[in-house]
Design brief:
Blueprint: E1 2-3, E2 6-12, H1 16-28, E3 34-39, H2 46-53, E4 58-61, H3 67-76, E5 79-80, E6 83-88, E7 91-93, H4 98-106, E8 111-120, E9 135-138, E10 143-145, E11 148-149, E12 152-153, E13 164-165, E14 173-177, H5 178-183, H6 196-206, E15 210-221, H7 232-249, H8 254-275, H9 279-294, H10 296-303, E16 317-318, H11 322-327
Parallel strand pairs: 1-5, 2-3, 2-6, 3-4, 8-15, 9-16
Antiparallel strand pairs: 6-14, 7-15, 8-14, 9-10, 11-12, 13-15
Helix pairs in contact: 1-2, 6-7, 7-8, 7-9, 7-10, 8-9
């Protein structure tokens, strides 16, 4: 058992190059935290590299590749800390990145999770896809970010530098209270990878806690470190996991009509992939739906464990359709949505 007040846990799978490039920044700028590498049964020389070059780093060796969800669920059982920092191996941290978030969480016991501002490593004038300056969701379950809607990345001009409540914190760099993580059962193992952090954050809100972004803390993220952009497997996980997330967390009767609407909209997305010459992505959408229907009965039993209070309000939910806003109305920036309605916790 590894005991520390703040534990930075990096889940690694065949990321030797990322560790060589980014681990030095984590060590240099994280003096007051324990650094732990959980290896998801890598087939490259990651473990040998760490043992030879960083013998002081604690290692947790997993027996197979359990994905993001299972890997963290298993590794964190061996880590005792007040706050976990779940950090991707392809993230470069910056000086003073820990203190602003830890101070914010220390000041409010209701903050269960938080994220820093995420910039693009390749172009640090841009906010990055996986988190930007905080995650949001629309009423149909489509996620987006403050600073990133679909593939449109905004320049970081300080326009989103206020600490504020958000719907979800990125899994690329998530600060989370350990007791809340374990109380809520951690990540959903069925997800394997992608959107698992949004599912967990949804449950955090239902449990009565808050999720924040603290842009005084900044990290730079490569992105696509596990699955690159336009990868059919990534498309499959995104569509499949989004359906599972909505089914598990949305209240009845809304969940049923939302799933029907999503069936139609996902079909349009599949057609769009096909017309753009991405037939494999189109097939991935179909496979995602087939998986959801095949496992519907089992997931329905799981859903009954998470039935929320119908009277509870969720914060930071965009009350319009982000697909329509982006593709039809041309609202590319988060600031374009500001005049529209977002829900507030009541």
């Amino acid at each position: 058992m590894i005991d520390s007040r703040v534990a930075i846990v990096i889940l690694n799978w065949n990321g030797r190059d990322f560790l060589e490039r980014f681990l030095p920044s984590v060590i240099t700028h994280s003096a007051n935290a324990e650094i732990i590498i959980a290896d998801n049964h890598s087939s490259d020389d990651s473990v040998a590299y760490l043992k030879n070059n960083y013998p002081q780093i604690k290692l947790i060796l997993l027996e197979e590749n359990y994905g993001f969800t299972g890997g963290y669920n298993k590794a964190l059982k061996e880590v005792k800390a007040d706050i976990y920092v779940l950090l991707n191996s392809d993230v470069e941290v910056t000086p003073g990145w820990l203190d602003p978030v830890i101070n914010l969480m220390n000041g409010d016991d209701k903050i269960a999770a938080c994220q820093p501002k995420i910039r693009s490593y390749q172009d640090q004038e841009l906010l990055e896809h996986a988190g930007a300056s905080g995650g949001f969701i629309d009423y149909l379950g489509y996620p987006f970010c403050r600073g990133r809607i679909y593939n449109y990345l905004e320049e970081d001009r300080g326009q989103y530098d206020d600490a504020r409540e958000i719907f979800w914190a990125t899994g690329a760099c998530m600060f989370i209270r350990s007791d809340i993580f374990h109380l809520l059962g951690g990540f959903d193992d069925d997800f394997f990878a992608h959107m698992e952090e949004i599912d967990l954050c949804w449950r955090i809100h239902r449990a009565g806690y808050k999720i924040m972004v603290e842009p005084k803390s900044v990290v730079n993220h490569v992105g696509g470190g596990t699955l690159p952009k336009h990868n059919p497997r990534k498309t499959y996980y995104n569509f499949r996991n989004n359906l599972m997330m909505i089914h598990k967390n949305q209240i009845a009767p809304h969940v049923w009509w939302i799933l029907i609407v999503r069936l139609f909209l996902d079909g349009l997305a599949g057609i769009k992939f096909l017309l753009e010459g991405h037939a494999a992505d189109c097939m991935a959408v179909l496979k995602a739906h087939f998986y959801f229907y095949k496992h519907f009965s089992r997931r329905e039993k799981l859903r009954k464990q998470f039935i929320p209070d119908k009277n509870q309000k969720l914060p930071c939910v965009y009350q319009k359709n982000i697909v329509l806003a982006y593709y039809v109305l041309g609202k590319k920036k988060f600031s374009d949505l500001q005049q529209d309605k977002f829900s507030e916790k009541q």
